[in-house]
Amino acid sequence: MVPPMTMMDFFRKSEGVWFTQRSVHHFDTVADQSGESKLHVQVVESEDPRVKLVCESQGIDPAIASGGASFMWQEHEDKEAPNPDHAAVLIDVPDDATGRSGRLLRNQGYVEKIPVVSRYWFGQDGILTIDTDYEQNQGQERCWFITDDFRVRVSTIRMTGGVYLMTYCSERRWVSEQDLAAMIHHNLARASGARA
Questions:
Q1: pLDDT digit string (tens) for 162-190?
Q2: Lower CB density within 10 Å: C or N end of the chain?
């Protein structure tokens, strides 16, 4: 597996649905938020009108954006499709032609539901680090692929008084029952051909 080293490559490798198992450790008395969910990721190409909308809301020229992605979350047991109106849209504004670092413009943040600009960079090992300064918090998220279909995310939220919470997420690519049936059918056909 070759790790993505630009944000758009990272978004393209992440496109699809992911099953997330989340462990959250709070450093105060907030209720446990650990659990399971699904994450829906869709690539947003540079000509998508959302790119212009998010860039202009942050005072950024849309011409320097390379595209982005939308992220939608839902409870694991929820059978309804997620509401696209609740998607967070992230737009990639790379620092230079290498695309190894830059800014992420979000129409709404994870911690505080306000538009926010994050800094990101890819390490030599392929680990993506994203730093975000909110009005009252500071967050850091690190994410990397173990395989094409399994990735890990860890994050911390810090307030002026110190670390507020830490989160660990393991995410595997979600396989629908239809996809699973198709894979089984394909493998049975391969096995029959090998025996013939």
A1: 768 899 999 999 887 787 888 888 888 88
A2: C
